[in-house]
Amino acid sequence: VSAALGHLRPVRVVGVGLHPYQRPSDTPYTALGVHAVRAALADAGLAWTDVETAYTGTATTAMGMSRLMYRHLGATGIPMAQVENASASGSTAFRQACIDVAAGLADVAIAVGVDKPLQFSSPQRAAGVRDLVGSRVVPFTHFALLAQRYMYDHGATAEQLAMVAVKNDAIERLGLDGDRAVRVLSSVARSETVYDGENFDAALTRETAAQALGEAGVTAADLDVVELHDAFTVEELLYIEAMGISPVGRAAADLEAGQFDIGGRVAVSASGGLLAMGHPIGPTGVGQVCEITTQLRCEAGQRQHPGARTGLAHMVGVGVVCIVHVLRKG
Amino acid sequence: VHVHQGAPAAPFTIAEIQLDGGPLIRGTLSADAGELEIGQRVSAVWAVTGTDASGDDIVEPAFVEAVRQ
User: Which chain A residues are closer than 8 Å to B5 by Cβ?
Assistant: First the structure.
């Protein structure tokens, strides 16, 4: 038996808060997280005592970390848990909060993303299984291979790929305010299968986005703002095509034509995305929801995409899990 | 790869290899593979990459242009 989020109780984002992403510093994660939680509560007009369940997206900090953060807001006895899902940790925490509300387990749930790079671990090493290339393929290598293949297949140039970073770096930062609700139309999480030689990052995104758009009752053409996992420039092009926003092989040209700019056909990574806003891992997926909520409220200032009504948030986690949320205002 | 932490020492080249049987794998090009291009057929030669705890060689396939076999 399975049910889509849209078949359960309505879920709405009523408050968002953000501590600006920053390079590693002496600021403890508790201060980063509590700052964001207080901002979100103020935005929603809620008190910490209204929150009935809490999920913390985190990948590299420490076990059992939620309590040390939330106790600064009050030890209210609510259920709390850490959610680790690599780059998609924050997205998964948000999804769990949505599920709790949709299922009626809570009326008010909070998803927080926070990370301090205290302990990195390698799942391959822990798994005890050696593969052919081992540590020789790190993310830079992986996405260099994808970029080279994309340029070979579609004739895209290195300059066109670089335009992803140029576009995303030119955008102003957040200014969050307001208390209007944004509906979460769908929440979908999938993991990789076997793709018969196809690039698994794009294939998994295609499956997950198609399901999320279908459950939301919208198409790629309906999207006004998209936040996606653009840790590397080629990812933006691959995922845009996988989501159906551009035909296969057309994303580089559409990018160059300005179609993904603020004010273009669909604003992609108006926040600056992972490349420019940053990718602190645990917080990133939650930060995407902050940005889309701000855009759909038309409160993004100089960063505002005109007429933004429907948004999509997308994260992958080490390429093997993918989380997509579709949100709409009104 | 021009900068790499650990073994093997850079530079080395990683390639995606589509096997005739279907699967797509990633492997290292042999150090003397020369300039290969996407679409060229390759085959594997055994390369020694280290020694295990028993003193036996650890080998893995490295790829070269197929016509050189």
Answer: 135
| A125 interface with B at CB cutoff 8 Å | no
- For A258: left if phi > 0, alpha if psi spans -120 to 50, otherwise beta; the answer is left
pLDDT at A96 over 50: yes
- Alpha carbon dihedral B27, B32, B38, B41, in 10-degree steps, equals -80
Q: Cβ of A133 and B6 within 8 Å?
A: no
What's the alpha-carbon Rg for chain A, to the nearest Å? 19
Q: How far apart are CA B20 and CA B22, in angstroms?
A: 5
Closest-CA residue of B relative to A146 is B16
Distances (CA, A) of A48 to A42, A56, A294, A316, B56: 10, 15, 22, 30, 61
Task: Determine the residue type at A218.
Answer: V
Residues 253-312 of A with CB under 8 A from B: none
pLDDT at A305 over 80: yes
Residues of B engaging A, defined by a Cβ cutoff of 8 Å: 1, 4-6, 8, 12, 14-16, 18, 22-28, 38, 60-61
**Residue A227 bridge partners (DSSP):** A313
Q: Look at residues A154, A310, A152, A122 and name the one whose alpha carbon lies nearest to residue A241.
A: A154
Model confidence, pTM: 0.84
Which one, of A173, A204, A112, A211, lies nearest residue A301 by Cα?
A173
Question: In 10 A of CB A10, how many CB atoms?
Answer: 12
Residue A49 per-residue DSSP state: G
Within A250-297, residue ranges assigned H as helices are 251-256, 273-276, 284-296
Distance of alpha carbon A174 from alpha carbon A278, whole angstroms? 12
Angle at CA A172, nearest 5°, toward A171 and A176? 130
Q: Identify all chain B residues contacting A134, using CB atoms and an 8 Å cutoff.
A: none
CA A269, distance to chain mean position in Å, is 10
- Across the A:B interface, residue pairs with CB atoms under 8 Å apart total 35
Digit-coded pLDDT (tens) for B14-68: 999 999 988 888 999 998 888 899 999 999 999 888 888 999 998 889 999 987 4
Instruction: State the Cα–Cα distance between residues A235 and B13, nearest whole angstrom.
Output: 21
B14–A145 CB contact, under 8 Å: yes
Given a cut of 60, whether residue A301 has pLDDT beyond it is yes
